[in-house]
Specification:
Elements: H1 3-8, H2 24-44, H3 46-59, E1 66-72, E2 78-84, H4 91-97, H5 119-127, H6 134-140, E3 144-146, E4 171-173, H7 175-179, H8 186-197, H9 202-218
Length: 223
């Protein structure tokens, strides 16, 4: 993101001191934590990952186990996000037909009882187990453990002030998942994420990571 674009930003968070400019020490510490957490969790969770993959494959032998979707990453660069498949194989084609029922403004999309989600997929979503393959995205460097949630729509659909969230590497968890999740639209979510990451702090991010655990266990904000 160029400095000229950053200086032009206006919007709900423009009054905060900024923009997001993490120090080298912060970036090194954050990447180290990402590698340690992902590197430890992937082998430990391997039995769980294999069981989930087996159930998905058994329920629909002809469909892929993993769902791959292009997401908007840091500085707007696209990357392929990995999740366990929770929907029917032709879910993307059905999305357009369901567009009018979405609870949020397009290109964001959310249905309270999405008919494309499979029964086992609902369980995976309620428990957030569908997100586990993103630990591989963290190891690859596409994502961080903590960061703004990557969107499925591109940066050119953002309001200019919202692009500041793209200066951070996207995360598996972040302030939106802990404090708002499905109760927030994209404008509120962007305001929350930008406000949080404008003051980069490893301690705050570790605290947020700890707070993620009870949120997941309580299934807070999950559709």
């Amino acid at each position: 993101m160029s400095s000229s674009l950053a200086s032009m930003r206006t919007g709900p968070v423009a009054e905060l001191a900024g923009p997001i400019r993490p120090s080298r020490a912060y970036r090194v510490a954050k990447r180290t934590i990402d590698l340690v957490v992902a590197g430890v969790c992937l082998p430990l969770l391997a039995p769980v990952l294999l069981v989930i993959a087996a159930v998905i494959r058994y329920s629909d032998p002809g469909a892929p186990v993993l769902y791959r979707q292009e997401r908007c990453g840091r500085r707007g660069e696209p990357f392929t996000l990995l999740k366990f498949r929770t929907m029917v194989p032709n879910a993307h084609e059905l999305r357009e037909s369901l567009r009018a029922q979405s609870e949020v403004a397009w290109p964001d999309f959310r249905l309270p009882d999405d008919p494309r989600v499979t029964p086992f997929g609902r369980f995976l979503r309620r428990t957030s187990l569908d997100e586990l393959p993103q630990l591989w995205n963290v190891l690859r460097g596409d994502m961080s453990i903590v960061g703004p949630r990557p969107t499925s729509f591109t940066a050119d659909t953002y309001a200019l002030w919202q692009t500041e969230r793209l200066e951070c590497k996207p995360g598996i968890t972040g302030p939106w998942q802990v404090e708002g999740r499905n109760s927030m639209d994209f404008t509120e979510r962007s305001r929350l994420e930008i406000g949080f990451f404008r003051s980069p702090s490893i301690a705050r991010e570790l605290g947020l990571l700890v707070r993620t655990v009870p949120v997941v266990l309580r299934r807070t904000g999950i559709a």
